[in-house]
């Protein structure tokens, strides 16, 4: 408590005596807009003097007094502030303070502890819900023209107005979450806001406006007071509960229990409509967004001012936790105490869905996991299943900067509503994006062709290579995958040499540039040159993924890589780097994974992460190669480089920079490599109950299928870079690839809400390539879950 200015206090004491006829000690209290003072006459006789400095609020003061006096006639009025009359019989008085005209009101002091400083038992929160519902119910009909037209910046209905100031939030992770939840408000709440019941609300049930009293003697804690009606507003009824929840859940481990209690308590008095409950998730988040942006705004205008910062730590943590809560059917689930289990009915429905899928699709189109997941939403590194569960996405590198990243979504939406056309016209964002993208490459790579997928990029790269070298001869890495077109399959041993494949085409030569790779043929590191100087090896095009994903996240030997590129070039060939999986900062140390080997390609293929899920691909090449393609035949892609894609691609690049995601990949990746290495060599088992094979994706070799007990294995290697890692498993006794153990772990981890997959020639490598916003906390959680799975 701030004792305040003693002259001012003396002046106010005189004022109180003359206007209210009370004599007491005056001390200043904290306040946001109004000035508040505690008046102590005796320990039992205390008051709050409230001084409103804004003259324009007089009409509001009158209306507020009228509402509070009416409420004082109701049972709930006992715990609410009721204005006291002064010697003139009025409920407010004029005062000249600091040379300014202001208005005073006097209220009896309400005893109790602020909720912010108390830690009441769970059932308190039902009382809290009930009290706010009683207030809302008893205020019904008390609204007047002043209250109905009143508006202020904290009204939840005006939350979108803070959008322009999101950038004032300095922490990129906080900014991303606030932006995300505002986007969700715009998408999920704004379109139906007009349908919500409106009522007069207290609208500021924050934990400094709620007083609690301990029950004692086995009785429950209860609400002792609700103060400060200064935010009263005519707005969506559901805002009341959302605001109360935004504050009362903060800092609570069992915040979902608070959620349940408050809503249940409120509904004992006022039954909320399904529509209101369906959006409460977004409204609660909206209040945290307001807290974050208002604080950032205040900090910007008035650095060091503490008042607005009071809830920031709590709000930012809640946003981090909240994005992990699956919003689908959340209210019902929490109310019924369910945690997202499927049950028998759910399993049956899932089976029917799978059947339905294959009514329309070939079995060549596979589903992941023994029990496929029905997805209904996603946010950043999290995905939401229809069953109410949240999954941490550790395996999808397509939503590179995060699922539904607001900046990317909005870039696409904006441009889609403006212009979408093709490269046969001039438009600014094509050149802008091309220039930005090429600025990420060494200067020799200065021409770009836009397409719509990694496969299309491979296909085009083949045509460019043929135009440039004059030959259709290729070198590829063993187990490589370069795409689904006929040309790309021909360059993909992962496809042509495995089930259903037609074998190696004659014009393709296979190399293995990882000396540690489990030998599949007699293919150790070569002693001498890799290529012949003349004849069949002349002018071959060398395609290499910079870390070979389908081979099991294989990092190549720098020496062999440089040697190969040198030999290819000496033979008149060119080197094409496939960065579809590894590009855009994923490997942490570098923006492109080819940079790990200190080699500069002649051409680069891009795809997956480029559009964060929007279908984009590109071929970047040298001036000379681009010129060789100028044969008179037009190159045209209907969609490649369209204005919408350019805006999206640009947003992805900007987010990578703004959120320092490459650096995040490096830090989190290094941490994971070091933690996972601690699990290496240790003999481990994974339970037999997890003996499940990936749905429609059977391993082809390695492992034995006749285990009767848990699989014994060890982690033989953790490899990769940044957020592109592989965990290789081998059987403890034989040292053979431990396929079943890897598959069992992936399925077990899925049950724990963590999505991974297996890959490599024997499906014994657990693949890790999450969205780039994957945090240290997520990494810690992954390691803990893995430790718990492999005993
Ligand atoms: N190259 C690599 C290395 C890939 O992993 C893929 C896709 N998995 C592709 C090319 C083909 O990309 P898309 O599926 O977009 O056609």
- Overall morphology: elongated
| Biggest pleated-sheet summary | 7 strands, mixed
Any idea what the radius of gyration is?
Answer: 33 Å
Give unreliable regions as ranges: 518-523, 691-708
Structural class: alpha+beta
The strand order across the widest sheet is 14-22-21-20-17-15-16
Query: What's the total helix number?
Result: 22
Beta strand count: 28
User: Residue share in helices?
Assistant: 25-40%
Q: What hetero molecules are bound to the protein chains?
A: 4'-deoxy-4'-aminopyridoxal-5'-phosphate
**Mean pLDDT across residues:** 92
Strand content: 15-25%
Structural topology:
Blueprint: H1 6-19, E1 25-29, E2 35-42, E3 45-52, H2 58-71, E4 93-97, E5 100-108, E6 113-114, H3 124-139, H4 145-149, H5 172-189, E7 198-201, E8 210-213, E9 222-226, E10 233-236, H6 238-248, H7 255-269, H8 274-301, H9 312-322, H10 330-335, H11 343-360, E11 375-379, E12 382-385, E13 390-393, H12 406-416, H13 428-438, E14 445-451, H14 454-469, E15 474-477, H15 486-489, H16 493-496, E16 508-511, E17 541-545, E18 547-548, E19 554-555, H17 558-570, E20 574-578, E21 603-606, E22 617-622, H18 623-628, H19 643-658, H20 661-677, E23 684-686, E24 711-721, E25 724-731, H21 739-751, E26 754-755, E27 757-759, E28 765-768, H22 776-789
Parallel strand pairs: 13-26, 15-16, 15-17, 17-20, 20-21
Antiparallel strand pairs: 1-2, 2-3, 3-5, 4-5, 6-8, 7-10, 8-9, 11-12, 12-13, 14-22, 18-19, 21-22, 23-24, 24-25, 25-28, 27-28
Helix pairs in contact: 3-6, 3-7, 5-8, 6-7, 6-8, 8-9, 12-19, 13-19, 20-22
């Amino acid at each position: 408590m701030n004792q305040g200015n003693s002259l001012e206090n003396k002046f106010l004491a005189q004022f109180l005596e003359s206007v209210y006829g009370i004599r007491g000690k005056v001390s200043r209290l904290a306040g946001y807009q109004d000035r508040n003072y505690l008046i102590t006459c005796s320990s039992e006789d205390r008051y709050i003097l409230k001084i409103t400095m804004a003259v324009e609020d007089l009409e509001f003061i009158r209306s507020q007094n009228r509402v509070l006096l009416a409420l004082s006639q109701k049972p709930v009025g006992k715990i609410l502030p009721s204005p006291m009359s002064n010697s003139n019989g009025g409920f407010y008085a004029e005062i000249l303070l600091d040379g300014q005209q202001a208005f005073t009101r006097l209220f009896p002091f309400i005893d109790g502890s602020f909720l912010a400083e108390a830690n009441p038992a769970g059932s308190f929160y039902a009382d809290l819900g009930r009290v706010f519902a009683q207030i809302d119910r008893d205020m019904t009909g008390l609204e007047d023209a002043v209250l109905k037209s009143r508006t202020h910046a904290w009204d939840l209905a005006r939350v979108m107005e803070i959008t322009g100031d999101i950038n004032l939030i300095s922490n990129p992770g906080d900014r991303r979450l606030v932006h995300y939840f505002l986007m969700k408000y715009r998408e999920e709440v704004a379109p139906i806001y007009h349908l919500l019941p409106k009522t007069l609300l207290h609208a500021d049930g924050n934990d400094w406006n709620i007083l609690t009293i301990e029950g004692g003697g086995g009785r429950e804690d209860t609400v002792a007071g609700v103060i400060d009606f200064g935010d009263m507003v005519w707005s969506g009824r559901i805002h009341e509960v959302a605001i109360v929840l935004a504050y009362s859940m903060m800092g609570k481990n069992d915040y979902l229990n608070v959620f349940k209690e408050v809503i249940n308590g409120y509904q004992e008095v006022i039954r909320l409509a399904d529509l209101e409950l369906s959006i409460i998730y977004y409204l609660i988040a909206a209040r945290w967004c307001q807290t974050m942006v208002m604080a950032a705004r205040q900090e910007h205008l008035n650095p060091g001012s503490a008042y607005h910062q009071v809830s920031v730590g709590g709000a930012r943590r809640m946003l981090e936790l909240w994005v992990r809560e699956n919003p689908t059917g959340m209210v019902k689930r929490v109310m019924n105490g369910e945690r997202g289990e499927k049950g028998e009915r759910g399993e049956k429905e899932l089976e029917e869905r799978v059947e339905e899928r294959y009514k329309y699709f070939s079995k060549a189109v596979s589903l992941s996991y023994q029990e496929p997941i029905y997805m209904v939403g996603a946010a950043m590194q999290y995905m939401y299943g229809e069953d109410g569960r949240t999954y941490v996405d550790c395996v999808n590198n397509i939503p590179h900067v995060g699922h539904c990243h607001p900046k990317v979504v909005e870039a696409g939406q904006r441009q889609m509503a403006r212009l979408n056309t093709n490269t046969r016209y001039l438009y600014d964002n094509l050149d802008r994006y091309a220039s930005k993208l090429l600025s990420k490459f060494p200067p020799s790579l200065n021409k770009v062709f836009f397409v719509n997928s990694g496969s299309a990029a491979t296909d085009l790269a083949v045509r460019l290579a043929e135009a440039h070298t004059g030959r259709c001869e290729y070198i590829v890495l063993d187990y490589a995958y370069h795409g689904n077109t006929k040309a790309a399959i021909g360059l993909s041993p992962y496809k042509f040499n495995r089930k259903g494949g037609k074998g190696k085409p004659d014009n393709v030569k296979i190399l293995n540039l990882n000396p540690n790779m489990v030998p599949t043929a007699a293919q150790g590191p070569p002693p001498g040159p890799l290529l012949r100087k003349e004849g069949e090896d002349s002018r071959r095009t060398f395609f290499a993924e910079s870390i070979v994903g389908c081979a099991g996240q294989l990092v190549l030997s720098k020496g062999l890589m440089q040697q190969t590129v040198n030999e290819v070039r000496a033979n008149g060939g060119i080197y094409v780097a496939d960065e579809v999986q590894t590009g855009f900062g994923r490997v942490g140390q570098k923006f492109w994974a080819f940079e790990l080997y200190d080699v500069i390609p002649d051409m680069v293929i891009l795809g997956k992460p480029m559009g964060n899920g929007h279908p984009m691909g590109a071929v970047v090449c040298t001036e000379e190669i681009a010129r060789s393609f100028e044969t008179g035949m037009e190159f045209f892609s209907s969609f490649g480089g369209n204005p919408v894609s350019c805006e999206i691609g640009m947003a992805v690049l900007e987010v990578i920079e703004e959120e320092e995601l490459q650096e995040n990949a490096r830090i989190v990746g290094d941490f994971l490599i070091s933690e996972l290495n601690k699990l290496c060599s240790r003999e481990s088992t994974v339970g037999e109950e997890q003996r499940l094979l990936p749905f429609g994706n059977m391993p082809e070799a390695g492992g034995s299928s006749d285990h009767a007990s848990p699989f014994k294995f060890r982690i033989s290697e953790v490899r990769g870079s940044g957020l592109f890692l592989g965990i290789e498993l081998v059987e403890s006794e034989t040292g053979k690839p431990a396929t079943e153990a890897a598959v069992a772990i992936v399925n077990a981890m899925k049950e724990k809400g963590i999505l991974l997959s297996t890959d490599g020639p024997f499906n014994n490598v657990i693949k890790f390539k999450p969205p780039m916003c994957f945090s240290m906390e997520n990494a810690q959680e992954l390691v803990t879950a893995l430790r718990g799975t492999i005993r």
